[in-house]
Amino acid sequence: xxxxxxxxxxxxxxxxxxxxxxxxxxxPAENPMQPSGGFGTGASQAVEVTPPAQxxxxxxxxxxxxxxxIVFRVVNGPIVGxxxxxxxxxxxxxxxxxxxxxxxxxxxxxxxxxAVPKAISNTTIxxxxxxxxxxxxxxxxxxxxxxxxxxxxxxxxPQQATxxxxxxxxxxxxxxxxxxxxxxxxxxxxxxxxETGTRGYLAxxxxxGSRELFTLPLREVVVSWPSQATVLTHTKSAAGVPGVAFSIxxxxxxxxPLLHATGLSIAADPSxxxxxxxxxxxxxxxxxxxxxxxxxxxGLSFDPxxxxxxxxxxxTSILYCAAPLEYVAPNYLDLWHAGSASAAEALFSFTFPGxxxxxxxxxxxxxGGVESTIxxxxxxxxxxxxxxxxxxxxxxxxxxx
Length: 401
Prior knowledge:
By secondary structure, the chain is mostly beta strands. It has helices spanning 10-24, 332-338; strands at residues 71-75, 79-88, 91-99, 105-109, 118-121, 128-134, 139-146, 149-156, 168-171, 178-181, 187-193, 198-204, 211-216, 221-227, 230-235, 242-249, 255-262, 265-268, 274-280, 285-291, 297-299, 309-311, 318-324, 345-351, 356-361, 374-379, 385-390, 396-400. It has 2 helices and 28 strands.
C-alpha cells in the first residue's frame, strides 16, 4: 500500500488550512450528505430490483424542436446525471440518464423525432444525490443518504439489456466523502475520513479489490482522476481561504504538492499536460493554466471555475465550461455549492495550449433552450453533443457542438 511522503512543509499547510475547515463545515451543501464515520459494506441496505423492461413512466421530450437550434430539451426532470453512449451496429447516439427520485436508468436516442425512452435499469433507490458513470456508460455509481449515512452503490448493466438479464449491484463502503472514476471507467478512487485526516482507496468500478493508496492529514478534501496514472486531490475551495493540492501516483501512492493558494480549485487534462487552476482572495477569482512540463503559467481571457468544466473526448485539447453571463459575487462558487445562488449561465470552450475561448451557447437565447443555471456537464465520445442538467427542475438538455 502506497503511503504519502509527508514533506517538511505539510505541518504549515495544516495550520494554515485548519481555520478554513472550521469555516467550511458551516456552509450547507445543496444535497447535504454527512458520513456516519463507520466503514461498513452497506450490504444490508434493501433496494427494489426488477429486470429492465420497456418504460411505462410518462416522460416528455422536445424532439420536435427545429434542427437548427443548438440547445434542445432531451427529457423533463428530475434528472441527477447523464452521459452519452454511442453504438455502431446500428450507428446510434443515446442519452443515458438517471432519474433523481428513484434511481431508474433510461436511454433516449438523440436527434430522433418521436424517440421513446427505453429502461436500462429499474433498480429503485430513492433520493439519488450524485451519479458517476463507469465503463463508458455501461455502469453507474450512485450516492444517496440513508438515515444520515452516505450510501454508495455500483450498478453494472448488461451489454444488451433484455428482460432476462439482471443489473449487477455492488455496495461500496459507507461514509464515502468523495469518489472519482478513472478515465477508462474501470476503476474508482474514494475517500474515507478518519479522526486525523483522510485515506484514499483504489478499487474496481464495483468496489472490488480495494486497497489503500494514500493518506493525508486533511479531512475536508475532494478528489478527481484526470489521467490514468494520476489522481488529483485538494482542499475544498472557498473564497479567501487557504488551500492546497496534491497529485497522487496511482501505482505507488506517492504524492507531489502542486499548489498552495487562497480559494484554490483545480482541473487537469486527460494527458496531464495542463493544469487549470483558480485562486480567489475573496475579492475576485483568477484562473490560470500551468504547463506541467515547464511549470509556466498563463492567464485566460476570463475566469471559469475549473471544477465546473469537462474535457472533450474526441479532442482532449478542448475544455468545455459553464459560467455566468453576468457579474456575480466573488464568492459565487461557494454560494453555488450551497444551492443559495443562481445566475443565467452560458457554455464556453477553451482550446489548449493557447487558451483560445469562445461562447458555444447561451441557453434561453437565440440558440434555443431556456435560461439556465447549468449542472453536470457531459460530452459525447465523438464530440458532437454536450449534455447538461438545469438546476431547479433538473431537466436534461442537449447542445449540438
